[in-house]
Specification:
3 domains; 8-stranded mixed sheet; alpha/beta; about 400 residues; 5-stranded mixed sheet
Length: about 400
């Protein structure tokens, strides 16, 4: 399957914007950015990019947040940028979510990344996921990992012994890469999670189960100790027999990096990011322009279960060719309803706890000012029959 870099970026922008990610240019029109007179100081550097297993994309995320004064937007912040991978020049989509502490951030990143893979024709894939937990979790795990490796220092390859001088996780990464037996007998980070980190990780797993996603929990999926906190994930493309492709045409990685942001800004800003790289294809000189259809439907949700159901529904509507607005990271029902009025959509779909349990939705006709409760299975049929929705 041959995909040009331009076609990749067109589809990447289309998919990202459908799931609520905005361009930096659009976000700079926000009143918070316009009224901000000072950039946020940061220390994210070239050295940080070398540590960042996502080809420096986490560093670019912090740079973009600070340099474009996006830190002044005091609400869930989702944006994408088109990047060139350092050194290789490969085309990449970078997805960033700030100001969202809850697990819906990772769920949105995974759903958007896998949707893009599907759109590009790579429908056979599995998700590997792990968690290093919050700061307290990480301290406990690294202490146990360091003790484990120090007791077995004589059994370690020379390169791993040298890397122990830098950090135990760096040595472990080398052992994992070399498929050394010590790596697979090392402590499991999931056993050291605090209650809050365990809940956060469990919610992501619940999302994967609800989405019927193929996944595995991989305790040996780790990142640099200065970059990641809580969940990390990888989307691995599979061949027809279900084995991992030797040379993946797409590289998809993501994770939460609150600690990385704090190290570089000294501010507690929740952050999660992902990158989708088109392998062995140079980024074009110009970013392609696309024209999205005008959304005629707004999906409103309230609560963890309804958020996940709404995220899955948004993807179903996307596949059906129905353009939507949504703010899946919002916890305010009134704010979402106000935005639905502002966007002048034809219909608003509302999913609360009752609708989540009963597998239904409230479908509100915004022009006629009427609403009805219908099953999820009947929703698409109803929307397709609307001339304004079908023609948008």
């Amino acid at each position: 399957m041959e995909i040009t870099a331009t076609d990749f970026l067109k589809q990447a922008i289309n998919t990202a914007e459908y799931f609520g990610f905005k361009s930096v240019d659009e976000l700079q029109k926000h009143p918070g950015c316009k009224d901000c007179s000072k950039k946020l100081d940061h220390t994210a550097s070239a050295q940080a990019r070398r540590h960042d297993a996502l080809h420096g994309m986490l560093t670019y995320g912090v740079n973009t947040l600070c340099e474009n004064k996006l830190h002044e937007i005091d609400e869930p912040l989702l944006f994408y940028t088109i990047e060139q991978v350092p050194r290789s020049g490969e085309a990449a989509l970078s997805l960033q979510i700030f100001n969202v502490e809850k697990s819906i951030a990772e769920a949105i990143l995974i759903q958007t990344s896998t949707a893009l893979a599907n759109d590009l024709g790579y429908t056979n894939h599995t998700i590997r996921i792990n968690s290093l937990g919050d700061r307290d979790s990480s301290v406990r795990y690294i202490r146990e990992l360091t003790n484990y490796l120090k007791k077995r220092i004589d059994d370690m390859p020379e390169a791993a012994r040298e890397l122990m001088k830098e950090h135990a996780l760096t040595a472990l990464s080398h052992l994992i890469e070399k498929e050394h037996d010590l790596a697979y007998k090392s402590p499991n980070p999931l056993e050291y999670l605090t209650d809050s980190s365990r809940k956060h990780f469990r919610e992501i797993i619940e999302y994967l189960d609800m989405a019927d996603a193929q996944y595995e929990i991989d305790p040996k999926l780790i990142g640099h100790h200065e970059c990641y906190s809580d969940a990390l994930f990888s989307v691995d493309l599979l061949d027809e027999d279900g084995g991992r492709l030797d040379e993946e045409p797409l590289l998809i990685r993501g994770g939460r990096y609150n600690e990385f942001v704090y190290r570089n800004t000294k501010k507690q800003i929740p952050a999660a990011g992902a990158v989708v790289v088109l392998r062995n294809k140079k980024a074009p000189a110009r970013q392609p322009r696309i024209k999205l259809g005008v959304p005629t439907v707004y999906v409103v949700q309230l609560g963890f279960g309804p958020k996940i159901k709404s995220l899955i529904l948004v993807d179903e509507l996307r596949k059906a060719g129905i353009n939507v607005h949504q703010n899946l990271a919002s916890d305010s029902l009134s704010a979402q309803l106000r935005d639905a009025e502002k966007q002048e959509v034809e219909y608003t779909i509302i999913i609360g706890q009752k609708e989540f349990v009963e597998d239904g939705v409230i479908l509100r006709n915004m022009n006629a000012r009427t609403q009805e409760q219908i099953s999820t299975s009947d929703l698409l049929t109803k929307l397709r029959r609307s001339p304004k929705v079908a023609s948008a």
